[in-house]
Amino acid sequence: MPRDGEGSASAFVEVDFDNQLARTKTIHKHLNPVWNQKLEFHFQDLETLRRRSIDVSVYNEAKPSGRNFLGKVRIHGSNVVRRGEEVVHRFPLEKKWFFSPVKGDIRLKFYFSTEPEPSPPPPPQTNTNSSTACTTGTSPTSTNIEVDKIKESIEEEVKVVTTQFINKQVVHSQQGVPVIEEDTRRPPPVTMMHSQQQHSMHQEEFKLKDMHPNLGERWPAGGAASSGGGVTGRTGGVVERWFSGADKMTSTYDLVEQMYYLYVRVVKAKDLPPSAITGSIDPYVEVKLGNYRGTTKHFDKKANPEWNQVFCFSKDRIQSSVLEVYVKDREMVAARDDYIGKVTFDLTEVPTRVPPDSPLAPQWYRLEDRRGEGKVRGEVMLAVWMGTQADEAFPEAWHSDAASVHGEGVQSVRSKVYVSPKLWYLRVNVIEAQDVQASEKGRSPDAFVKVQVGNQVLKTRGSASRTASPLWNEDLVFVAAEPFEEQLVLTVEDHVHATKDEVLGRLALPLTAFEKRLDHRPVHSKWYNLEKFGFGALELDKRKELRFSSRVHLRVCLEGAYHVLDESTVYMSDNRPTARQLWKPPIGVLEVGILGAHALLPMKARDGRGATDAYCVARYGQKWVRTRTIIDSTSPKWNEQYTWEVYDPCTVITLGVFDNAHLSTQGSARDLRIGKVRVRLSTLETDRIYTHSYPLIVLHPSGVKKMGELQLAVRFTCLSLMNTLHLYGLPPLPKMHYLHPFTVNQLDSLRYQAMSIVAARLARAEPPLRKEVVEYMLDVDSHMWSMRRSKANFFRVMSLLSAAISVFKWFAEVCQWRNPITTVLVHVLFLILIWYPELILPTTFLYMFLIGLWNYRFRPRHPPHMDTKLSWAEAVHPDELDEEFDTFPTTKGHDVVRMRYDRLRSVAGRIQTVVGDMATQGERVQSLLSWRDPRATCLFVLFCLCAAVVLYVTPFRVVALIVGLYMLRHPRFRSKLPSVPSNFFKRMPPRIDSML
């Protein structure tokens, strides 16, 4: 039965047996579909089969996710015969209810077998309506046949080119290991069941998963305290009483699961007895709890030492009911340190301390002898309490979880907060120079200016006229970071010939000497004398002393009204200008609870087995956070919560998981990337807590791989809804980016320089946030050419164009009277709109309003995450991966080939960006009514409703006149800033933040 409104149907069969559901692939646009697929179901015994029935239903696949009923057949299990006795049966399709429009029949073959069946080759296609009752899965289809044809042609062309040039043995340049590539020909056919099961398994593996963690505001009374072993009795009772009752204490750690720790603060000691052998004492303290031992630093010859160190033991790993604190004397000669005394604590008597309570006051304890029968000389000041990760002592404490880490590696396992350096754009306007003389007499210099700031070097063009007073009037823009450590070094050089440039004068100025500009007002220019260079520059050399000094005319300023881009604009986490005076108040607060990770893959070998020492890094705005490193765990639990001020909701927070390679050495080892997650704030509902497990997906030279899952709790709190909605009409970047914009080449170069500066400054922190981590978080290699990214961006565009193609096809079919009812209705609507043209715009906006309301049911329930299908990572060819992971410049072949190959990758990278930008614009149009950004869609839907009402009551001629005059208005009445609709559109969330 035709059910798609176009005289055809896209049919598939769904079979239900004993709560086991499977379906065939979809045959598009065909009233006589042929499947020839097999579906398999499992049952316990023949008696179960005899009591069950098989429901075979035929449906029409309707876009985007619906289906229409076409008929059904019910087969009783007693009619199923043994394999080898089966025949093809023909059944008429039955109605679901009396008025169901059903016609046609279906051919089935059903049987059972107690042995596994070999996979025969697929039978040839026939023209009969045939379907075997045991197939599973569907094949991915596009929304239009033309798009499918384009995809197939591109894939076929890529495969042909790849087959012609691929080698059997490809050396992966990044690993330096020869790998035998798979044959580029199509692999041998496998059974449909195996491929579909594998596809569905991958789809399920890469999905976002819901979580139900026991967060702070969901803790049951006493639940958190009673869980876990090791500490019972009075301590548990104290914690239960603390959480019970109406006076439950709130905490800022309400997005993480509560974790209990035993804290021991060793403050100092006094009156320690000297050693009988040396007459002095080198004291240190050892804290012992079960199998865990932590030691303080030791002091040489000091009877009253002060340590002030904190030790932290996880409650989940406590295996003893007694805490022992030893004071020992470090003996350099003897093989064993001398024992002075100890203090013992019963864990059932340890008090519980919860912030914002004041810190527990330390006390003096007399040291006991070895057997605990008497007191010895000396006292030690200690504080012992039970607390949570919200305790102030938690970040700097020695953790039992990292007891195997020693030396400098201890710093690298602690959680830290980093702040990006404050970046400025330095604009150097080189105007002109005077009295520039070439070294050769009688020759006019071909002068140009070279300016260097740190590692950044830019040059002006050569002067148009070769005179002693050259004129350039050219802007050179650099990136500088506070505190300003570099100088501006300017040299005037003479281009003697193609291989030689001669320096004629030099100038070095500190960056602090330049004016900071907060708007577009002009900056005063200055003349600077150039230092003498070459002969005569030294005071002691008087042989060819220069009689005069050249000078250069400059206009230099630090631009504070721009936002210095150190990340891509589509992943932008901050858009504030550099100058703090131009910042607006925050509109919200972002809170992220980094709960933990699950099922991480081993990243290194340790003691003959795989191990992972994972930590998480989050970046939003200028604030970077790094969790502590969990040693040797594939399912680490961090439970750390961080907060950021939000100045714009259309921003993205990036979180990455890495393996710590610096536990025992500070050498050249690199922290390995495990995966990355991006969350766009505008896709989050206000004041809702999102608890999900995000897949960590990474592309390797061998293909796409799931490295584990990152468990997060995210909440976006809006401080002022009106201010937030007002931002949707403002430009995404500060207005100086539109009044005096940079060129595309300048933005690319400046962004790379900004990323390099941020990576260098954060690498100087203690512990350092390493360069490979910062570059991965900032997507430093996103501009590199990749066949996979280019195909992904192309198919994003084609998926958008497919909707327009479908509309044109539908209109062509209306004109051809394929469906007379639809054609008559279109004629009626056309006549009404022609007769009453004032209804055109109200009807359009009202229709969009209704579409927005209809799509509200299908709005995304989860934040976006990495999409392997959208990234074209599942179907990527091995040779394309080898090209993507190749070095730049390439190491594949002859010098000429390498030059051409690099040029091709550079040009294709820009084409790839343009295609991606086209897809981004189209996806922004889609997001207007998709509720991907709930606040923006709500604004647009309300605007559509108001526009429909206003346009309904306003004469169409008046509206057309106003719109026409507005579009044709004089440039004097135009603003250089983008319009409100343009700003609103640019803030719509594209799908690019879900791409790998």
TrEMBL record:
Which parts of the sequence belong to the C2 domain? 1-91, 243-365, 405-528, 571-694
Magnesium found in the keyword field: no
| Ranges of compositional bias, category Low complexity | 126-143
Q: Where are the transmembrane segments?
A: 824-856, 939-968
Primary site of residence = membrane
What are the GO cellular component annotations?
Answer: membrane
Q: Where in the cell is it found?
A: Membrane
Q: How does it sit in the membrane?
A: Multi-pass membrane protein
Which top-level group of life is the source organism from? Eukaryota
Q: Which parts of this chain are annotated as the region Disordered?
A: 113-143
One matching Pfam family: C2
List the keywords (alphabetical). Membrane, Repeat, Transmembrane, Transmembrane helix
Q: Which InterPro entries match?
A: C2_dom, C2_domain_sf, C2B_MCTP_PRT_plant, C2C_MCTP_PRT_plant, C2D_MCTP_PRT_plant, MCTP_C, QUIRKY-like
Q: What family does the database annotate?
A: Belongs to the MCTP family.
UniProt name for this protein? C2 domain-containing protein
**Organism name:** Acorus calamus
